[in-house]
Amino acid sequence: MSLSELRVFGRSGTPISPLTLGTMNFGEGTGGPPGAPTGAEESIRIIHSALDAGITAIDTADVYSQGESEQVVGRALRGRRDDVFLATKFHGQMSPNPAHSGNSRRWITQAVEGSLRRLQTDRIDLYQAHRPDYNTDVLETITTLNDLIRQGKILYYGTSVFTPAQLVEAQWLATTNHLIPPLGNQVPYSMLVRANERDVFPITQQYGLGVLAYGPLAGGWLSGSFVLESGTAPTRVHSLPGRYDISGPSSERKLLAADALARLADKLELSLVDLSIGFALTHPAISSVIIGPRSEEHLAAYLKAADVQLGESVLDAIDDVVPPGTNFVERDAGAIVPSIEFAELRRR
């Protein structure tokens, strides 16, 4: 696999690169401590380097640095917009006002105008619901997105971390109400986060959905910076401590698996990043893998990994460490459904 071998995004017929540039780390700040946004000028250099290397898809969200990521992307794409499959997302809260969030018609119609303005474009190629909204009827959401397609403000729409039932419901509602159905779904996928292999990927394949897979390094667990001997956590541990508490039995098993995968990579004379990206690119349901570099050095490592091809014996060895369909921690799914998160929904 190489960046020149484009893949078709779902049933759209649109070719995109096997790697998508994720921009969660980009902002107008000047960098700073771990977890801070990459400064605007360096972010623009990274975007230009990615495009020059053959990446044709960029994924962002309005909530990333509260709109600053979209602003940076807009600046970087001046004169190159038509060469890029541009995806962004809505749902996250964009101000102290809680009404400035969610998947309602009222908010989506405001959110899309903000994204178009910040991205300096007249249309968004893929507009995604960043998370399910359990307070809004799904039909209201997809009717609104259907209208945005009719208005020419977006070309396609999709979802992110929707459950299998929600994916099927959205397709059924669109079809029965003569609406354009969702085209894509964005999910976490890595050697340590494999639960989507059980049911989400078969559903996306059944309905012809394009899949953008994020987190190929499992939020830093597969970056090589989280090592068993020292118990050193990745930098994101400070911003998402709940996902990096290694004291629990589930996280301990996850850490042991990460260590075993690192040893496998060493045996194969690959970096753990190479092994991780190569694995994520292998699943036939995946349209493109989102990478999230913080620097041009990070980008170079990701680009190199796009050329890695893993044979059957290597994939079998990965399966021996982490069986297919496995998630070690519930939160690794990207979102916890209310029926699991809130005890009062499970008890009379």
The biggest sheet, with number of strands, parallel, antiparallel or mixed sense and barrel status, is:
8 strands, parallel, barrel
Q: What would you report as the Rg, rounded to the nearest angstrom?
A: 19 Å
Give the neighbour order of strands across the main sheet. 3-4-5-6-7-8-9-10
Mean pLDDT over the residues: 91
Topology (elements, then pairings):
Layout: E1 7-8, E2 15-16, E3 19-22, H1 40-53, E4 57-59, H2 68-76, E5 85-90, H3 105-119, E6 124-129, H4 138-151, E7 154-160, H5 164-176, E8 184-188, H6 200-207, E9 210-214, H7 249-267, H8 272-282, E10 288-291, H9 296-305, H10 312-321, H11 338-341
Parallel strand pairs: 3-4, 3-10, 4-5, 5-6, 6-7, 7-8, 8-9, 9-10
Antiparallel strand pairs: 1-2
Description:
The protein is an alpha/beta fold and 348 residues long. The protein is built from 11 helices and 10 strands. The chain has helices at 40-53, 68-76, 105-119, 138-151, 164-176, 200-207, 249-267, 272-282, 296-305, 312-321, 338-341, and strands at residues 7-8, 15-16, 19-22, 57-59, 85-90, 124-129, 154-160, 184-188, 210-214, 288-291. It has an 8-stranded parallel β-barrel with strand order 3-4-5-6-7-8-9-10, surrounded by 5 helices. The chain has a two-stranded antiparallel sheet with strand order 1-2. Strand 6, helix 4 and strand 7 (154-160) form a beta-alpha-beta unit. Helix 5 runs parallel beside helix 6 (200-207). The longest helix has 19 residues, at 249-267. It is globular. The chain starts with 6 loop residues before the first strand and ends in a 7-residue tail after the last helix. The model is unreliable at 30-34 and 230-241 (pLDDT under 50).
